[in-house]
Model the fold of this input.
Amino acid sequence: MKDITIEKDDTKKSGTRNPIITIENLQLSFGKQAVLKNVNLQLFEGENLVVLGKSGSGKSVLIKCISGLLNADGGTITVFGENVSTMKRSELNELRKKIGFLFQSGALYDSMTVKQNLEFPLQRIKRNLTKNECDEKINEVLENVGLTESLNKMPSQLSGGMRKRISLARTIVVDPRIMLYDEPTTGLDPVTSNEISLLIDSIQRIYKTSSIIITHDIECARATANRIVMLSEGEIYMEGTLEEFEKSKDPLIKAFFQSAVSVKQ
Done:
């Protein structure tokens, strides 16, 4: 794997950059259970935004609303200046071409080689590329995730960490402008989790993506976050830098960080 270092530009102020996603008063309930309650949030250009929270706090539901996979009951989500809730199906499909998703499973097509898994989205989204251009792009993303030697392997021949890295390569191969990560380190051992976290940070710098990273993994947040928000019972409980979270005297914040560290140990 390529040597990856973290070079965060924490001197940037969110207010000086363009918002890529703006969420205002977002509400969503499943039956009588309120999952999201008046959530207000922005993702800024070139930013890694980490969303922390316990299971059931609404984190994964949030990014499904952003991509139009779930319809909110109220509020607005604006992506690239367009209201997601008013988009036609064709417009949503075009929007999703600009958004990369890495969900927990990171499922690959088991009947396809690594190369074929990467060719599939390229042929569907980047239809004007020649075969040589496709091959060059595939080699580029495999190099950036440190797995050029896996080109002709089947997913069954890869470890869990390698599969996750190939899933990330498949996501970035079409040059998305936004990346949405749903618990990217879940189920991985600490060493592999750290590799994936560093890789997420590297991808942001190489491809200039704007990313939302859903996680309860403090070490993942430490490696990737430019800014953090914490959801609790469907609401934004706190927003700030990692340092501000770690220095917080708030009992809920302290308990979350202590429990997350104990789980990793």
Notes: The first helix runs from residue 59 to 66. Strands lie at 19-30, 33-44, 48-52, 74-79, 82-83, 99-102, 178-182, 210-215, 227-232, 235-240.
